[in-house]
Amino acid sequence: MSIPNTSSDIVIFGAMGDLAQRKLFASLYQLDRAGLLSQESRIIGVARHEEDTASFTNTCEESLQKYIKADELEPEILARFLDKIEYCAVNFTETESYQNLKAILDQSAERARIFYYATPASIYGSISRNLTRSGCTNTNSCVVLEKPIGHNLQSSNEVNDQVAEYFDETQIYRIDHYLGKETVQNLIALRFANPLFGSQWNQSHISHVEITVAEKVGIEGRWGYFDKAGQMRDMVQNHLLQLLCLTAMDPPDDLSADMIRNEKVKVLKALRPITLEMCNTHVVRGRYTKGVLEGNPVPGYMEEEGANPDSKTETFVAIKAEINNWRWAGVPFYLRTGKRMPEKLSQITVHFKPQPHFIFDESQRHLAQNKLVIRLQPEEGISLQILNKDHGLNKGMRLRSESLNLNFSQSSEQSRIPDAYERLLLEVIQGNQYLFVRRDEVEHAWNWCDQLMGHWANDTKPPQPYSAGSWGPKASDLMLIKDGNSWHEDQ
Ligand code: BG6
Question: pTM to 2 decimals?
Fold first, then answer.
């Protein structure tokens, strides 16, 4: 890829926060290191407190040393990168205060201005208004919004409406960092560049799909935030539904942002609503109790610091989702995500239907299914489970299940897989919206989740317990067993 000639002013609101210091500056450094940040670009950190550029740059340098591998921190590039950083103190809610920022911004009308809101969504409207009123925007400005945008359809509409007063949809980049993961984008290549999969990707050939996003971490220090959200809002409404869309969508006519997003919206609209009755058969809501992870005892959710004994918040969700369209009628999409699971693992498993007629030894019939595993993290790659003849004169026609494996970090020339934020920031700089979530996607996703969470709101029972370090409540396994299926790790 060539060095972009578009130079930008990249303005990060909330520049002292965890996201900015842990991810954004590190990602921008990596872009610079890869030669993908134009040398005239500037990065302006914005926060409320008074500080000078020199001490802010020191803070950024310390963060880079912490979050970037030592062999990737090249002194010359680091010095060049730090030189691009400036600091500006702004009181986010006071228009007058934005004059400080205006004075720093490059005054050319064409130069791109990227305003990244790494702040709570409750002030997105206020920042948008003040940027515009103070004259900080030009014809080439855009805004980047972090999730969560609201906690339901209504509150997300409020935030989106406020931002839309000042920026139109082509200027708004809503982040779902899962879309920046290399393997997630590879799903598009895998599905639409390979005729082999293109022809098989439907209810005639696929029996069911599993999407698992499991994390080892618990809530550690985030109890207050997390308890208001829960796993449904934190992970399902965004990351899991995005993965579902990319797995299930029809081929877009081309790779343009709107073509891809139109297809994703169609999937969201076709999702079968979860009714109250279906909550017992199609949904499992869980909460971790104390347990053991990697040999160490860990506390339960209700024993974490700051826990409220009345909480009913879930840390685990499993859902049997169904898509009411021609391609997917009758194919369950099992979604599962949880905290304090045995491993950090994000993967999509596509189970193909068995042969209509089985001519091998009946005792081997259970083997006879192909399975495509798309591993998003860790060890990004794909594997295709196929059946072979067991080698050897004495094996007759015995079958053996084996995997064709492609490990991306081993197969690519560059062993380093870029962080999702590097990809997303690069796309913003290049003005490409295909990896960002359009407003109607957010709305349809909330609509589906709100309906389900509405049933929970009237449920007085706490979520089902599961021991930290396990794969979730027993009911999650039973949900699949009733359909004659099982989660990937049980097979
Ligand atoms: C975030 C959630 O969006 O995604 C976190 O708010 C979660 O709770 C994180 O830990 C997981 O992201 P990743 O990239 O580590 O799988």
Answer: 0.94
